[in-house]
From TrEMBL:
It comes from the Bacteria. SUPFAM superfamilies: Ferritin-like. Pfam families: DUF892. This is Ferritin-like domain-containing protein.
Amino acid sequence: MAEANETRDIFVTGLKNAHAMENQALSIMKPQVSRIENYPEVAQKLEQHIRETEGQIARLDEILGSLSESHSSLKDMALSMTGAMAALGHTVAGDEIIKNSFANFAFENFEIAAYKSLLTVAELGGFPAAMSGLKANLDEEVNMAQWIDHNLRSLTIKFASLKEAGQTAKV
């Protein structure tokens, strides 16, 4: 029975970490979208993913609640502050939109890895009720990472073209 409790503890910790991670994602994306002027397709996709992320947090809350657990406010706050600082750091870059895209792509892949791990622990620990919510979150993260991957070239071309034309290309 101790082994089952250990797996449950690993799962709950992972869920709390994922909840904080999604709050961090919001604190990264919201400032980005508020600054975008020349890249409406990026703004639209970020706005969509912000709504998805809010849904992911709700799914994680539901899974935690089903285990009689709740998220860690301290972890949520700490990672949200870290995310806000990361977003702020790119605002001084002359190629802010490009740097944001790199960071977002890396973060999406981090989230993908986190959800794959959580799905594995859910399977090992016998938490089948959590699988559909975690899979939905994973699918949304994979879709966002693929979108960034497929659009990075055109975004870079647009950035370079605006820069060459002497226009504001930053955001």
